[in-house]
Design a protein that fits this description.
This protein is mainly β. It has five helices and 33 strands. It comes from Solanum stoloniferum.
Amino acid sequence: MNKQIISFVLLLLFSCLVHGEDPYLTFEWKVTYGTISPLGVPQQVILINGQFPGPKINCTSNNNIVVNVINQLDEPFLITWKGIQQRKNSWQDGTLGTNCPIPPGKNFTYHFQVKDQIGSYYYHPTTALHRAVGGYGPITIYSRALIPVPFDTPADDFTVLVSDWYTNSHKSLKGLLDTGRSLGRPDGIVINGKSGKGDGKDEPMFTMVKGKTYRFRFCNVGMKDTINVRIQGHTMKLVEMEGSHTVQNLYELLDIHLGQCLSVLITADQNPKDYFIVATSRFTKESRVATATIRYANGKGPASPLEKKEAPEGWEWSLNQFNSFRWNLTASSARPNPQGSYHYGQINITRTIRLVSTAGVVNGKHRYAINGVSHTDPETPIKLAQYYGVADKVFKYGLCKDEYIPPSGNEVITIAPNVVNVTYRNFVEIILENHEKSVQSWHLDGFNFFAVAIAPGRWKPEMRQNYNLLDAVSRSTIQVYPNSWAAIITTLDKAGLWNLRSNALEKQYLGHQLYFSVNAPNTSLKDEYNMPDNDILCGIIKDLPHPKPYSI
């Protein structure tokens, strides 16, 4: 750790002692290339401190997190903290709309607080196609000691990161998209960076003791496919989804869509031997399957052979499962008051934004668009352009309208930064409409929303009568099935710039994203922090004088 970081950490610790701040956790991460074989074929991956997946961040609600990221790659690099709400602090969000990437050989120190959050999340790269070859890892936020949790403390807490996987390098994959081609089908599935063969010869990934109960946190950190998970011979009790405690229903199988995280409890109540965690691709012509081995302590015998049919067919089953997920109204989340004390269904909607996803070809290359606009990242990050007062030189507001009007002829796609102005603290309804033949998954930075409905067809205002306005799960990702729509509602109560993006890497890279610019009536430290002193500058603002900071 260099002298600058040591001084920074000491300053933080001193501040914590003097001002009574919440505890600080500090990390130093070196981002490098390395060669490993996730699917049995040697390939270049992105490591953090020599690890793939990267180091786990274990923290408690309200902790301050300080991560010094040292980029030792040959390309600019940036990390986002998926699901972390960055209260008053979109400066730390780590997207190309909020931050300049870290140049090769340089570092950037993130500093954010997991304010009023618990749950299961992960981090991942946002530059180029780096996410396709690693650089991701888990984030676990535990409840404070005084906040009750609606289940007994498990014997252990395991993280399971499932992902589809390509054996090509990230540069090769990027080259495909940059020349108008598609990534194609993934080559396989990995579980925590490995792909078991299911032949009984793999080393165990987890160990359980008979009679004890364990928490398994699943996240789909992949690029293209929904992944169905199950644990041989064991029932899964759903207890948490992206920071919300859920009604504790039992499941044999669970669909986990791109970008989604959830927690289940597993009781080791079977004969002591080996069992497989089975991860199977969904909605694909040919299923891809990976396994990881769970071993009972002192158990005898290999896991049973896999059955031929490992996951249900079609998306109707998946939709029915979505409808079974319910918010636990009596449980506390990060705060002592019950989740159900927030009556979201009684709040009047102040704005409806209907976002229709389309696709087309522009200049011979495939692009994806939202309401006719295919996002592209400007050289100067949008947030910095706003802060420095040069937004008009970088992007235009309002290209994406609240209501999509299809063109009378061929689809017209505009390639530009896609920025939507929204009013601070408005309670908005966002409709995500999928006109494609594949399942979509969307994530909103900075906020949790209530996923109140998913249904086939086209959305109409009268569909609101079927919304779940009582116990929809508060979360930050939502899937949209083919030729269907999803409705989410949320209060935009955090000033800043927040990314809504497809979790499908190819679609996101080719334009399936936008930014909500949430502006408070007055620029004040009550609503948003100043730009960090260590922020990296790039583009047209690189040599401009520093703007006057916000004040109270």
